[in-house]
């Protein structure tokens, strides 16, 4: 967490980084402050920004987690989050679909009709717009993920990993991204 990097932790990470390369993953999830409040992130964007700056100042690489499909977020919100993480200096990005899981507050909001999960087509559209915005010098560590099927409520299509990976591969082929032909 970006809010868990006091000076003694930074000093320890700097020492470790001299022994073996260290990458630190930070859960930004969103740069939309209202969404951050909804998911109870408990820190504002300036805390993330400072954490990246502090880590970069001691030559630590940063990976940023971003959730696609948060309630009430638009495509523009997701793209703004990507842009914000890039502007702050992230070295890597993990893009993740929002999963609605049983027995969570999000599930309760879903049952009330307050949360609409993304379709696979909507996810692919936003995902590849994100990929196109991420500079080539930034490593994309993840473009999908899955949740335990026994807890997954929505989107159910995400539980079929083979279908998801095949859809991603087809989209990559369509966009000519495979085998070094990337045009983005």
Give a structural overview.
It is a single chain. By secondary structure, the chain is an alpha/beta fold. Helix content is 44%, strand content 16%. It is built from seven helices and six strands. It has helices at 7-19, 33-38, 45-57, 75-88, 105-111, 120-133, 161-174, and strands at residues 23-29, 61-68, 92-97, 100-101, 139-142, 152-154. Strands 1-2-3-5 form a four-stranded parallel sheet. Strands 4-6 form a two-stranded antiparallel ribbon. It starts with 6 loop residues before the first helix and ends in a 10-residue tail after the last helix.
Keywords:
single chain; 184 residues; 7 helices; disordered C terminus
Write the layout of secondary structure elements.
Blueprint: H1 7-19, E1 23-29, H2 33-38, H3 45-57, E2 61-68, H4 75-88, E3 92-97, E4 100-101, H5 105-111, H6 120-133, E5 139-142, E6 152-154, H7 161-174
Parallel strand pairs: 1-2, 2-3, 3-5
Antiparallel strand pairs: 4-6
Summed up, what is this model?
The chain has 7 helices and 6 strands, in the order αβααβαββααββα. With 184 residues, it is an alpha/beta fold.
């Amino acid at each position: 967490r970006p809010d868990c990097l006091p000076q003694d932790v930074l000093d320890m990470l700097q020492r470790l980084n001299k022994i073996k390369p260290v990458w630190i993953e930070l859960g930004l999830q969103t740069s939309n402050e209202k969404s951050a409040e909804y998911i109870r992130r408990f820190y504002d964007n300036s805390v993330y920004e400072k954490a990246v700056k502090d880590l970069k100042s001691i030559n630590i690489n940063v990976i940023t987690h971003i959730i696609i499909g948060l309630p009430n977020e638009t495509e523009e919100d997701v793209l703004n989050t990507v842009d914000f993480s890039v502007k702050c200096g992230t070295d890597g990005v993990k893009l993740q679909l929002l999963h609605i899981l049983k027995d969570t507050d999000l599930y309760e909001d879903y049952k009330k009709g307050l949360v609409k999960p993304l379709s696979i087509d909507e996810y692919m559209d936003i995902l590849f717009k994100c990929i196109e915005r991420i500079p080539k010098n930034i490593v994309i560590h993840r473009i999908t993920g899955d949740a335990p099927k026994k807890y997954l409520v929505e989107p159910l299509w995400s539980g079929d990993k083979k279908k998801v990976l095949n859809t991603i591969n087809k989209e990559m082929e369509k966009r000519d991204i495979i085998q070094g032909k990337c045009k983005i």
